[in-house]
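Onboarding guide, step 5: your first structure request.
Type a short instruction followed by the sequence, for example:

Predict the 3D structure of this protein.
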Amino acid sequence: MVLLRQEIGDVLRDARRQQGRTLREVSSVARVSLGYLSEVERGQKEASSELLASICGALEVPLSSVLREVSHRVAAAEGVPSEVAMSEAAMSGVSMGEVLVPDTVPDDLTERVDLRAAGLVSASAA
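The system replies with C-alpha cells like these:
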C-alpha cells in the first residue's frame, strides 16, 4: 500500500540531498523543528499544507513540482499510467483505454476550419 506521507517525505528528502543541504539548514529556513522535518522526510508525520509550503519555500522548489513528482511515484506504485505517459501516448496516437487521440489532423478539417483564425497556425506558416 502506498502512503502519501512517505512519498512526500521521499521527494522532499531527494530535493534536499540534491541541493547538498542538511536537515538543520532547511529546518532553520522553513522555521520547522529539526526533529519534525526529519519525521516528515521519513514519512512518519503528515505535513500540513502550510508546513509543506514552508519546506518547499526553504528548498526553493515549487509545491506544484513536489506534488507532481509525488503523483508520478504513486501512479507508478499503483501500476497506473501517469499523466506524462498518457499525454505522450496521446501525442503519438496510442490508445490508453477507450480513448484514441490521433496525431494528425484530417485533411478535410483543414478545409473547414480557418487555422489562422483559431490561432493554430502562424500567419507566416500559412
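Each response can be followed by summary notes, for example: The chain is about 60% helix and 0% strand.
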